[in-house]
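Question (not urgent): is this output format expected?
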Amino acid sequence: MGNFQPEETHESPSSSKSYALRWKHENLRQIILVAIFSVALLVMISLIVYGQGGKEISLVVDGKAQTLETREGMLNEVLDEHAITVSPHDEVSMPLNGAIEDGDQVTIKRAVAVNVTADGKTEQIYTTKDTVQEALVSQGVKVSDNDKVYPAVDTVVKADLNIKIVRVTKQTAKQEAAIPYKVIKTADPSLYKGDNRVIQNGHEGVMVQTIEKVFQDGELVSKKMTGKQVQKNRVDQVIAVGSKKKPEPKPDPEPETLVAAASTSKSSNNSVADKVKKVSSSSSSDSDTITKDGVSFKVNKVLNNVSMTAYSSEEEGIGTKTASGTRVQEGRTIAVDPKVIPLGWWVYIEGVGFRRAEDTGGAIKGNKIDVYYDSLDQALNFGRKKGKTVYVIGPVKPELN
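Got this back:
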């Protein structure tokens, strides 16, 4: 084999060097432009990287806004960076571990503690709601339509507010009440004046009342009648009142005449003694005459230890018409037991004055009287009085002396 011979060039080393210098001179402008472009590109990339790392967010706490600058990526990191604490009860518009972007708005609403009293116990709750009603609903506290809430449900919530819920329940019950019978008087020409005769006995009726009772936290606070139905009709009492005029009685001899006649014979003495006794008996009736408030009157009978209450037409279910057919009148009308005081008779009550028995009542039995007042407040203030003395007079009211 032959030896390998290096290729010979026809250019000398000096010519190659001059070629490089000539190329550099011709491309210097391009080299400078490339360098400037590279530097600008590097600066631009640096600005982009820096811009992606820095952020501005808007933070609103309880309605107050502020701007935060950060290079952190998570919300909890931003809050820690600016020493902003969040309690477990606070309301945050986004998750604490959520990523944030430049320009985000984060809202934090601080929770406040309030005290709720219901069903016999008090509990402290934390809420971010604006009103009492919203706070109760958010905590699952049930409030019925009948319940009462203090303060009102539209009250603005503030720290340490005391909220009280009063449970209101209603119960309906049935109860029987007596319907007093009326006394009807009719004129009877076959009877003498002053004589009466019962034609028909009276009987009370029965009424079933529907009573609604209202309880607040288990305590009875009110009751009212919401309905009524007659179960048994009453039977009115009918009394015949005599209208026939009585014959004029013959006058009795004067006592002096009787005494004079007594001295003439023994037999006549007995007759005179009887007549004198009759006159004396007639005179003794004057001892039943008493004077009260300047008025003298004879007493039919005296009732001791009488208990008294009062009533008013302003009460539920009480009308203005009495059992005797008259209209109630303050200062005159009383309710009595007709078996003790006949209807239409006048009485004098110690400490009260003259009154007329015009009404009856299911609870008025025996020595008991109910005094009428127009005002319910006066009737309630009257209360219950015991140990009163009542003078039963008769159907005619005594006149002033």
